[in-house]
Amino acid sequence: MGITAIEGILDTTLGLVFTWLGWKTYKILWKYTPYAYPNARLNAMEAKLLGEQRFNELAESRTLQNFIVNLEDTDYKTHLASVQADDPVEIERAFERALASTYTLLEDILPDRVGGFFRLMLKGWDVRNVANVVKAKMRGETAVDYIMDIGTMVPKVKAIADAKSPEEILVILEGTPYEEPYQRLLLGEISLSEFETAVYRNYYSELLEYAQSRKDEEKEVLTEFVRLLIDMRNIVTVLRAKKAGLPAEEARKNIIPGGSIKLDAMLNVDDMGMALAELDSTKYGRIIRDVRDKIESDLSVLESVLRKHAIDRMKELTRFYPLSVATPLAYVLEKEREVQKLKALTKMIADGVEPERIKVTLGGEELA
Q: Which of 52, 183, 259, 271 is most deeply buried (CB count within 10 A of its CB)?
């Protein structure tokens, strides 16, 4: 073989090697670089989350007006600026708007390939709005009182509240994920509670479908996140049903598909204690073991424990994938927990609960 031929082979080989290296470099940059800025920003935002000491200070507010004033050095100031200081419902809704603005921010600053997930999460308010307004209309209540001014279809929800007939609501919902369940409700095929479960099923199905359409660790992390949310909802649903003495088939109607654990064993036992015993054999067993006795008397303890587990799991994934969607998901869960505590604090201050009792409640996160 001549020198020229050897040089040609070497040039071709080097060209292939450099092409491969260039492609690998591009892929790494494409995957990880877009997370550098948003995750750095989220780390700074996480440092501003309210800690236990700050919540203890807020517990001393005694009046809602003082409570609002004590939050003036936080990002909640903007959302609280226009609320009536003596209206706990308005204050709670301001906290909800603050949480929704977090989803909007994440949609804006994250890579397009995952930003849409947080847009979908905003639809959680759509589900609540539609379910609450339809229930209010069916019960003859003032539906507009149940509208949260958040979500992707607020004008439609307001139109539903103003609708003169059930058939007019069906027209308004045409082309939305809520049309089919509402039609079944009108035909008497499902109950009002089953309608609510149906719209939540659509919501979680959409989240899960989006997660599973991603690639690599984005798919892995988003899918686990959604399954965690579904598990949390289903476990609490089953235990509430057992506590109320509902039969398995009634409880099964409220289950959301797509979770990571099988619920048949929990559904088919006779009472809540036995259902908790069945939960022990799942991956959540170790999480509830130390607080099982408390859970039997107060299900809000379970919700708190499961929420903490979800946060811990997302934080664990941030160590495996430091430049990934795990960081914003962990932050979202922490922000949701903070907002829930602030809403609970609002209600307790409005009800005149003593500061020391508030501190105990918030410390144990008995927020239901």
A: 259
